[in-house]
Amino acid sequence: MAGRAANGEGTIYRRKDGRYEAAAYFLTTSGSRKRIRVYGRTRQEVHDKLIEAKARARQGVPVPDRTTKLGIYLDYWLTNLVKPSLRPTTYERYETTVRLYIKPELGKYPLPQLSVPIVQSFLNRHIETGHSVRSAQIVRTTLGAALTSAQREELVARNVARLVKLPTYESGDVHPWTVAEARRFLEAVSSEPLCAAFTLLVLCGLRRGEVLGLRWQDIDFARREIQIRQQLLRVGGALRQGPVKTQAGRRDLPLLAPVHTALLFQRQTQKAATEDNGLVFTTRTGQPVEPRNFARSFKRICHQNQIRRIKLHHLRHTTATLLKDLGVPARDAQLILGHSNISTTQQIYQHDSTETRRTALQQVEHLFFRTVGGTRCRQLLPSRRSFVEQLTTILSGSGEWTRTTDPRLMSSISGSLGDRLTAVKLVMRERTRLWLLGAVAVKLAVRTERHGSTGRLGTAP
Questions:
Q1: Which CATH architecture has domain 179-349?
Q2: What distance in Å separates the CA atoms of residue 180 and residue 197, rounded to the nearest whole number?
Q3: Structural domain boundaries of the chain?
Q4: Which of 64, 148, 308, 409 has its CA 20 to 30 A from that of 330?
Q5: Which pLDDT tens digit goes with each residue over 181-239?
Q6: What is the pLDDT of residues 308-345, one digit of tens each?
């Protein structure tokens, strides 16, 4: 007869409904001990769950004092952790994703019961109902951020959202403007009320919010500098002025001559504002410019002037690509655009084209097949196979030998076959002799220099 289980080992028994239940005492996050129960269809299943729970306990992972549902925790996470510490736009994006997608489907599950199969099925249904892969990635990222916080508070043992698989997302190709297209656009906006704003977008690569949030106090006309310190965004249905996106976004840029002229004209023509907000670009009534209306003006200008339409944000891609084509170092381009990481500048914002690739490969071609002083360079000397084939052509009497200036070989082309063979042998023998003399001279020079450094004179072999 088996002995009784020792204290703390836990028990496994069968319930009246036919399922199995295992229970044991574990240390909680508050330091007290709590009896935890797990359930399963078979005895082996609950035994495995109990063993897994004990393994986590031995690793020092306590169990939560209370079981919290995901929906309740998401509300706590948004209010107490996201809103005070992250940007308003980030909070708004998280809140929308939680309210529309996560809580209706997963909010009823207790945090410890949230598993990889549950989240995987949820995201699969999200894609099957017509949402894009990118939308599913945003949902997973939001849920993963919340579960990371719950894991930090020791409410869950692992972040199941990080273990979910999703199809690979392929972003659309970005085709920024060429120099000619950008020049046409600058000519088209010269008569627009927001000419200076569009000029800043093209020449300096500013973000839309950075341009619309620019203040007169940020412009130093004497030193010809612009300080990028804040941006204008719509958050929660209202326009707000706030700090730039990242610390790297706080940057000082030179005030270029075309921008300087456009801003001076903007200051002269700007009417008295009904609200003193200090912004450079305002509506006729002095209110901040609505970002969506700014984008609509951009589309209208492109349509009226038959300029290939791109997204307004892709003007930053245009500026970044032009900087690359001009040979500006990537680090300098990163600082101009205000990116935190240089990989963002190089991998996302800088693009190439068929023409730039052709130019690059032509430079490689020029490296190997250039001419020096009217003669072919060493890289163009024929390979052994090509040399043999041309010798065969000479010996057979068909064609001409155009890559040698040796008078004996040139004079033997029209001679008999024996004369041709003799001429070839003489030329090859002469080349071999010259090569040997050169090799011996180099060897002697190296040996003399080596012995001379130690105070001894080298001797010829």
A1: Orthogonal Bundle (1.10)
A2: 20
A3: 11-58, 70-163, 179-349, 384-453
A4: 308
A5: 999 999 999 999 999 999 999 999 999 999 999 999 999 999 999 999 999 988 878 89
A6: 999 999 999 999 999 999 999 999 999 999 999 999 99
